[in-house]
Amino acid sequence: MENILSIKNLSVELRDRTLVKNISFNIDEGDVVLLSGANGMGKSTILKSILRLETEGKRISGEVINHSFGNILTLNATDLQRYRAGIAYIQQKDEYAEMGNIQVRDIISEIREAHAGRRLSYSEVNDLIDEWIPRRSDGSRVFDAKSKPAKFSGGEQRLLSVLSVIATRPQAELMIIDEPLNNLDFINARNISNLINKVVKENPKMAVLMISHCRIFPFITREIKLSSDGISEVAEPYVCHSCFGEPDENGFYIQ
Question: pLDDT by residue (tens digit) across 136-175?
Fold first, then answer.
């Protein structure tokens, strides 16, 4: 298996506060890694440092080495954008509340255009939605291309955030996911697990690094834990604890 990322002695400081210190771990192709640990330990800081996001005012040392680009902490702006283009990133917070009349099609098409060079039609967006999100029991979609995310519930916004990344970037070499189940009821949590599992199954060389406090994901292959002593590999195999039924032999939850 080829190495995708090597994080070596990563430390991040903000003014006089140490956010993370001397963190080291590797991610290889095909790894689906859960980054666990208590709140406030710096898990999201690690993810943002891997992408070199929100760096203003921070002192970042160590190395984040990508197999194609080298140490991303030293890349120029052009190469940094090229590096990020190979990563599907699902951030922790959804930001749709102030979007007014913006439609689902606008959001998904903007992301698709940035990475594939063209926008999608309303029918193409609806086809993507139908491919990735099961319809309700009455046959209706959870949302469609003309729906306005500003009016969505928190769970619907989260589902759109995950869909808009994975449905338009399914062949990225690395997926980074920060708390994918925020604000979700059990139906949408199950949908999210199935969405991520679908990408993993269809792209066996893709690596995934995910933060989640909920252990419902049957496809996790490794767990690394962040504590005050640093980061360590969890020796015991990851155990899925689902509160809404057992997944099938391929790791999918029955709808």
Answer: 889 999 999 999 999 988 888 888 888 888 877 767 899 9
Distance between CA 244 and CA 236 in Å, rounded?
24
Q: What one-letter code names the amino acid at 220?
A: I
Strand partners of residue 178: 211
> Is the CATH code 3.30.70.330 the one for domain 3-96+173-234?
no
Task: Label each residue of the chain as H, E or C.
Answer: CCEEEEEEEEEEEECCEEEEEEEEEEEECCCEEEEECCCCCCHHHHHHHHHCCCCCCEEEEEEEEECCCEEHHHCCHHHHHHHHHCEEEECCCCCCCCCCCCCHHHHHHHHHHHHHCCCCCHHHHHHHHHHHCCCCCCCCCCCCCCCCHHHCCHHHHHHHHHHHHHCCCCCCCEEEEECCCCCCCHHHHHHHHHHHHHHHHHCCCCEEEEECCCCCCCCCCEEEEEECCEEEECCCCCCCCCCCCCCCCCCCCCC
